[in-house]
Amino acid sequence: MEGFRRFLWNPDTKELMGRTPKNWVFISLYYAAFYVVMCALFALSLFVLLYTTDPYTPTYQDRLKTP
C-alpha cells in the first residue's frame, strides 16, 4: 500500500503518478490540441457532406424514371 501511495504522490521528487507537473501540462496541452484538431476535421467533413448534398432531391429512388 505504501508503494502505491508513493506512486500517486512522491514527495521526494514532487512527482504525481511518475510525472512532474511540467510533464502533465505538456501532456494535457498535447491532448487538448489533438482533440481540437479531431473536432475540426469532423466538423469539416460534416460541412462538406451537407454542402454537397441537395436536401430537396432524394438520394434513394426505387423506381425507374419515366422516359
Can you characterise this structure?
This protein is mainly alpha-helical. It has a domain at 2-39. 58% of the residues lie in helices and 6% in strands. The chain has two helices and two strands. It has a two-stranded antiparallel ribbon with strand order 1-2.
Structure summary:
The protein has helices spanning 2-8, 21-52; strands at residues 9-10, 15-16. With 67 residues, it is mainly α. The N and C termini lie far apart (81 Å).
Content-based structural category: mainly alpha
Q: Give the percentage of residues in beta strands.
A: 5-15%
Distance from first to last alpha carbon = 81 Å
Major sheet attributes: 2 strands, antiparallel
Percentage of residues in helical conformation: 55-70%
Radius of gyration: 26 Å
Number of helices: 2
Strands side by side in the biggest sheet: 1-2
Mean pLDDT: 90
Low-pLDDT stretches: none
**Helix-strand pattern, N to C?**
HEEH
Shape: rod-shaped
Number of strands: 2
Question: How do the helices and strands line up, and which of them pair or pack?
Answer:
Elements: H1 2-8, E1 9-10, E2 15-16, H2 21-52
Antiparallel strand pairs: 1-2
Protein name: Potassium-transporting ATPase subunit beta
Subcellular location: Apical cell membrane
Organism: Scyliorhinus torazame (Cloudy catshark)
Looking at this protein, list some descriptive labels.
6% strand; two-stranded antiparallel ribbon; 58% helix; single chain; 67 residues; rod-shaped; mainly alpha
